[in-house]
Design goal:
Layout: E1 12-21, E2 24-33, E3 39-44, E4 53-54, E5 59-61, E6 63-68, H1 89-100, H2 105-121, E7 124-131, H3 147-159, E8 162-169, H4 191-203, E9 209-211, E10 213-215, H5 223-232, E11 240-244, H6 248-258, H7 262-269, E12 276-280, H8 286-295, E13 298-301, H9 303-308, H10 316-322, E14 326-328, H11 338-353, H12 372-388, E15 403-406, H13 421-428, E16 434-439, E17 442-446, E18 449-450, H14 453-468
Parallel strand pairs: 1-4, 6-7, 7-8, 8-9, 8-10, 10-11, 11-12, 12-13, 13-14
Antiparallel strand pairs: 1-2, 2-3, 5-15, 15-16, 16-17, 17-18
Length: about 475
């Protein structure tokens, strides 16, 4: 499969009849895209300039998928049977490890390319890859320690999506276990090794590719290693992510081992700042939410995966009212569209609280934030930019020229008044409704189809046959 053309695009001018600018719909929007693939100017309220490319519908900014395990795309939908009395996150995890032990670099590239094409069609233009599949299947390092990391980079370049690679620190099987389990042997890493991988990827200086670091979880890394990584990552330019408080059993184990809840421990023992992003944070107390707010760190919520794994529901009103940066991720990839994630995020709260429009803020109606979809989109847009370590996002000068063109003839949008299209997109559409997706000034999805869709699908199908046979 041919990769996406990495040459710099020519400067160009595009125009949209309607676009989401500064948190609201604006009419007659001109967007000047510089040769470096970033917006040079965004202006509203003007007729289409001569020579401009007229986009075929309303325009939204691309969103960041702030949490991804690409290899798990090969496992999506294949663990929905129960043979024992109880099935939960921990039994799912054991079955997932069987996939992790088998995937080769070539297969990972095929899986990730298919996934990233699907993400683009679903409106994501950047992905944060939480990457811990470091070694060969026998647990020994590859001749090139970056072998699996480079497979993900190649996949992102093939698909044309932005990538923030996050090599993961993973050293033990649990709070009371000093070593990894045998079925975790591919994950072994050190503070030095993950920082070296991050530096290696950054040094490639590839278009759309950057890197940070991650800690798998407090249960998977001893306190001194977490603190050492926090210190050693300071000179690096990228973000720092960590799974935390996803499961109640994890919270209980952390209290037993440390005397504190996971977020409580992290806030007291690590110098958190705006570079840190806490993935899931499902079981957080108001005191912990306040500690995160004071630190400047963000949270990454993965609604479809948290539902699929039975994790529980976060305190969304608490996170929103605190002002903590909030982003979304598809994690294990049961869904690959941000529309689905925002819908799940709101619907879970409606079921939990038995109320409607939980995320809306009527007191801010003048800013358009009495609309649930507007609040969730804007908060996810801003939080995602921080989670990916990008300097700017959205439809504004200086941001990368990522945009989504809505298909107003799509089911759920057909005939909807212009001012209510975002509401209908999030709560009334049942399939991706983007006719075009642009990344860095290039159109990579046209008429709802990725340019490399067929080739990516063929490679993915072949890989799935290799992994699963006829089972």
């Amino acid at each position: 499969m041919q990769g996406t053309d990495a040459s710099a695009p020519a400067a160009q001018l595009v125009w949209a009849p309607q676009a989401w600018v500064q948190g609201r719909w604006q009419s007659d929007v001109s967007l000047t895209i510089a040769k470096d693939g970033h917006f040079a100017e965004v202006s509203c309220g003007a007729a289409a300039p001569r020579g401009a490319t007229v986009l075929p519908g309303p325009v939204l900014p691309g969103l960041v998928n702030a949490h991804s395990h690409a290899f798990q795309r090969a496992f999506a939908g294949l663990s929905e049977r129960r043979s024992a009395e109880r099935d939960d996150f921990w039994s799912w995890r054991d079955r997932m490890y069987a996939v992790a032990l088998r995937v080769t670099p070539e297969q990972l590239r095929a899986i990730a390319t298919q996934l990233y094409c699907e993400m683009l069609q679903g409106g994501y233009t950047q992905v944060c890859e939480f990457h811990y599949l470091h070694h060969d299947s026998d647990g020994l390092p590859y001749a090139d320690a970056a072998e699996m990391s480079l497979a993900l980079v190649q996949a992102a370049q093939d698909a044309g999506i932005g990538l923030t690679l996050l090599p993961v620190l993973y050293q033990r099987a649990g709070f009371t276990q000093a070593q990894l389990r045998d079925d975790q042997r591919r994950f072994a890493s050190t503070v030095d090794s993950v920082c070296a991988l991050s530096s290696r990827i950054s040094a490639l200086a590839l278009p759309l590719v950057s890197a940070g670091v991650a800690v798998h979880s407090l249960r998977a890394a001893p306190a001194e290693a977490v603190q050492a990584l926090a210190l050693q990552a300071r000179p690096l330019s990228g973000p720092v992510h960590i799974h935390i408080a996803e499961q109640t059993a994890e919270v209980d184990d952390c209290i037993t081992a440390t005397g504190q809840r996971p977020i409580e421990w992290l806030a007291h023992h690590v110098p958190l700042d705006h570079r840190w992003h806490l993935v899931h944070a499902t079981h957080a107390t108001p005191t912990e939410i306040e500690a995160v707010r004071r630190s400047g760190a963000g949270v990454v919520i993965c609604p479809s995966t948290e539902a699929n794994l039975g994790d529980g529901l976060c305190d969304l009103p608490g996170w929103l009212s605190s002002g903590v940066p909030l982003s979304i991720g598809s994690d294990s990839h049961m869904q690959r569209s941000w529309v689905d994630e925002l819908r799940w995020l709101e619907y879970g709260q409606r079921l939990k609280l038995r109320r409607r429009n939980v995320a809306a803020q009527p007191a801010l109606a003048a800013q358009g934030l009495d609309a649930t979809a507007a609040v969730l989109l804007q908060r996810s847009l801003e939080g995602g930019v921080a989670a990916a370590g990008l300097p700017a996002g959205g439809l504004q000068a200086g941001a990368r020229a990522d945009l989504l063109v809505l298909n107003t003839d799509a089911p759920g949008l057909l005939g909807v008044p212009a001012s209510l299209r975002l509401d209908a997109l999030v709560f009334a559409t049942d399939a991706p409704a983007f006719s075009q997706v642009w990344v860095g000034g290039r159109c990579v999805v046209s008429q709802g189809r990725h340019a490399h869709r067929e080739a990516a699908a063929a490679a993915f199908a072949s890989t799935m046959r290799q992994l699963w046979g006829s089972a």
